[in-house]
Amino acid sequence: MRKIVVIINPISGGRSKADIAAITRKVFSARDYCVDLCYTEYSGHAQKLAAQGIADGADTIVAVGGDGTVNEVGKALIADTSVKFGIVPMGSGNGLARHAEIPLDTVQAFELIREGYSELIDYGDMNGHIFFTTAGTGFDAEVGQRFAEMGRRNVGPIKRGPFTYLRAIAEMSATYVPKEYTIMTDEEVFHQKAFLITVGNAAQWGNKAYIAPHASQQDGLFSISIVKPFLYIEAPMMAVQLMSRQFDRNEHVRSIESKHLRILCDNIGYSHVDGEPMLLPQPLDVTMHPAGLRIIVPKERNSIL
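^ thats the sequence. predicted structure below, dont judge the formating
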């Protein structure tokens, strides 16, 4: 009998999770599966619940929520690659789920978990903070922080909605100034004024915004996108390229690959890991950890993990 622990973030994505129990009863027969449902109560709780699930002998741990919940559960699972990681995406971005082509439909996502096909993927860390999709610094991190601040001021599901995020982008665009960085990889050292620097272990931030369109989670390399300063009149075309997996073709984008990265800046500001903004001391040291997480994915996919 397979033991599955389902960890649910009840507030992620502004979507109700009331039907999760009924769906799991429908998808997983009581004869073949032992399914425990757990609900998070505070930041960091998902990681503790996942660790307890491993200690209790679960062979599959499932995260039901957004990128933050996925990150917390994944951090617990890198300690044991024999345990499978299932994702039921119910957040606002769903970066890892989209990259791995996990269905956004809740029932289909649970059915995929029942099938149980899994593969090992890479993960990274920035100054010890684990990430599975992207990490970086610059404009996107500052927008993430502004978005979080606006969410705390508001109430209800709209606080995590797209309109709030667009407002955060508009507010930051009016004041943000690109910074001078020193960038060090295993292959080179160079100085670059940049709008943002994104270290991609996955191709997208989420919502099909392909910041690192050629990133793979199984090649042991980061796909790093350095966006140089540009005119705001050029932003619409860059947005089109971002959504159509052609961002690396833009003349203001420099793309490099490496296993390690160090970033220095006189005024580094906010950074992010898997979209979570945070203030980190510099230098920012980013390290690749190959084949460190076992994730449940479709057997046949169009993209490369």
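The longest helix spans residues 139-153.
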